[in-house]
Design brief:
By secondary structure, the protein is α+β, with helices and mostly antiparallel strands. The protein is built from three helices and five strands, in the order αβββαββα. The chain has a five-stranded antiparallel β-sheet, with helices on one face. The chain binds guanosine-5'-monophosphate (5GP) and zinc ion.
Length: about 140
């Protein structure tokens, strides 16, 4: 828990929120500034800044909660689809430093784009160069 974190305050019920799902490890509530109907965030109850801070068990619990929330919104709001994503770091738009997964219900002709519409900063390097740089530190070399 982080005493200065808004989302930790929501977990502790010190701050009002519209909670739609809660279990031992995960909580999910409606975003206060929705970009679409039932725009929701799903968060771990432990205060982590980014996905890099989680253990395998934490990841499993978080994604399990995420799946339940998506199922719940599908059944109640019946969107045509979803965008599901994380703003990781200030440059990517992360304002709250408590890891949260955005769930954005989508409808045909709602005017929105796909994840590809967030950024198109075409790389100067070739795919081969980028691949070489990354793969030697991965598990395929
Ligand atoms: P970020 O930009 O960090 O990925 O997104 C943070 C999200 O949290 C924003 O969409 C914002 O509207 C939402 N948010 C910020 N403060 C509160 C709050 O006090 N209650 C709720 N329900 N959502 C919040
Ligand atoms: Zn927190």
């Amino acid at each position: 828990m982080d005493n200065n974190c808004i989302f930790c305050k929501i977990i502790k019920k010190e701050l009002e929120s519209k909670i739609i799902y809660e279990d031992q490890n995960v909580i999910s509530f409606l975003d206060i500034n929705p970009h679409t109907i039932a725009h929701t965030v799903v968060i771990p109850k432990k205060h982590y800044s980014t996905i890099l801070d989680l253990s395998n068990d934490d990841i499993l619990q978080l994604f399990s909660g995420l799946q339940k929330v998506v199922d719940l919104i599908k059944k109640t709001i019946n969107p045509d689809g979803f965008n599901i994503g994380i703003n990781h770091g200030r440059v990517a738009g992360q304002v709250i430093d408590h890891l949260h997964i955005h769930v954005l219900p989508r409808f045909f002709n709602d005017g929105g784009g796909s994840i590809h519409s967030i950024i198109f900063n075409k790389p100067k390097e070739s795919l081969d160069e980028i691949y070489e740089k990354i793969k030697k530190y991965g598990n395929r070399s």
